[in-house]
Design a protein that fits this description.
Elements: H1 4-13, H2 24-60, H3 116-125, E1 134-135, E2 143-151, E3 161-169, E4 175-183, H4 188-208, H5 214-222, E5 226-230, E6 233-239, E7 246-253, H6 258-266, H7 277-280, H8 287-290
Antiparallel strand pairs: 1-2, 2-3, 3-4, 4-7, 5-6, 6-7
Helix pairs in contact: 3-4, 4-5
C-alpha cells in the first residue's frame, strides 16, 4: 500500500502548475520595440517624398523649420577656388532712394500734331475756301490760315449768315490756336454756313485724331454748348449771348494746372539752348531724327 507521502504526490500530479508571471524587464523590452516600430513608421511617412508630409504638418501649425535649407546649385556650375578679390566700397547718392518730388512732376499734354498747312489744305478740300498757311500781316513770327464766308441777308434788316475761322501758329506749321465764329439765322443761308462749320470740325477731328471730341461734333450739329478741358487743351463751343444765333468755337492750350504748365515749359523749344556747331553741320536728312522741333505729319 502506498504510504502517506505517496498519496499526496499522486494527488498533485493531476493539477497543472500555474505559469510564472512575466518579468518587468520583458515588458519594458516589448514596449521599447513597439515604440521604436511606431516611430519608424511615423518617420517614414513624414520624411517620404522629400519630407512633403513633414512640411505640410509644420505649415499647418505655423512652425518654423529648424534646419536652414541650402538652395540647390544650378546644374552645370561649380565652385571656383582661388584668390578672392578685395572688396571695393561703392557710394550710392541718396537721391537714388528719395521719393519723387511732387513739385517737379509734369503731366501729359495734348498738342495739335497736324501741320498747319495740312489743316488748311484739308479745309479747302472740304469746301471751306482759304488762302493757305501764310505769314500774318501783323506779326512776322506768326503764320495763319483764315477763311470768311459771308452771305448777305435778302431782306432788309435781317441777320447776315457768316462763317469765319482762323488758325495761328509758327512758320514751321505748329498750330497754337484755332478760332471759329458762326452766325446761322434760321433760313437757307444759315443752314449753308452751319454745314461749313460741321465740315471744318470733321476735318479737324480726323487730322488731329482727337476721337474723344466726337461729342463736340454732335453738339455743333445741334448748336448746343460744349466745353471740355483735356490734357491741357481747352475746347469750347458756346453761344454768344450778345447776338442771336451766333456761336464761337475756341481751341486753346491751357496752363491752369501746375503740372501742365511745367510740361509745356519743358517742351518749349524756343527756350532751349542752342545746338552745338557739330550738330548744326549734320546733313539735313539726319537733323529731324536728332532734334524734332517741327510737328509730326498726320497719319494717312
Amino acid at each position: 500500500m502506498p504510504s502517506g507521502d505517496d498519496k499526496d504526490k499522486s494527488g498533485l500530479r493531476g493539477i497543472r502548475a500555474k505559469p510564472a508571471p512575466p518579468k518587468k524587464s520583458a515588458m519594458l523590452l516589448f514596449a521599447a520595440l513597439l515604440a521604436a516600430f511606431t516611430c519608424a513608421i511615423i518617420a517614414t511617412l513624414l520624411l517620404a517624398n522629400d519630407m512633403r508630409n513633414l512640411r505640410i504638418l509644420l505649415d499647418r501649425y505655423g512652425l518654423e523649420w529648424l534646419i536652414v535649407e541650402t538652395p540647390p546649385q544650378p546644374p552645370g556650375t561649380r565652385a571656383v577656388t582661388g584668390r578672392r578679390l578685395a572688396a571695393v566700397p561703392l557710394t550710392i547718392p541718396a537721391r537714388f532712394f528719395a521719393g519723387p518730388e511732387m513739385a517737379a512732376l509734369g503731366a501729359f499734354v495734348r498738342e495739335v500734331r497736324a501741320n498747319g498747312g495740312e489743316l488748311c489744305a484739308a479745309f479747302q478740300a472740304a469746301g471751306v475756301d482759304n488762302q493757305g498757311w501764310q505769314q500774318s500781316q501783323f506779326d512776322r513770327k506768326t503764320f495763319e490760315c483764315l477763311s470768311e464766308t459771308l452771305l448777305p441777308a435778302k431782306e432788309e434788316g435781317a441777320q447776315n449768315a457768316s462763317f469765319f475761322f482762323i488758325i495761328k501758329g509758327t512758320p514751321e506749321g505748329e498750330v497754337s490756336s484755332i478760332r471759329m465764329k458762326l452766325v446761322a439765322p434760321e433760313n437757307a443761308d444759315g443752314e449753308t454756313v452751319h454745314r461749313l462749320l460741321i465740315k471744318t470740325l470733321e476735318q479737324l477731328i480726323e487730322k488731329t485724331r482727337w476721337l474723344d471730341l466726337a461729342p463736340a461734333l454732335a453738339s455743333a450739329e445741334a448748336l448746343a454748348d460744349f466745353t471740355a478741358v483735356r490734357f491741357g487743351l481747352s475746347f469750347r463751343f458756346t453761344h454768344e449771348f450778345s447776338a442771336p444765333r451766333s456761336y464761337n468755337l475756341i481751341i486753346l492750350p491751357t496752363v491752369r494746372e501746375p503740372a501742365v504748365s511745367r510740361s509745356r515749359t519743358y517742351f518749349d523749344s524756343p527756350q532751349w539752348l542752342k545746338l552745338p556747331a557739330v550738330i548744326a553741320r549734320l546733313p539735313g536728312f539726319l537733323l529731324p531724327h536728332i532734334v524734332a522741333t517741327a510737328p509730326m505729319p498726320s497719319a494717312p
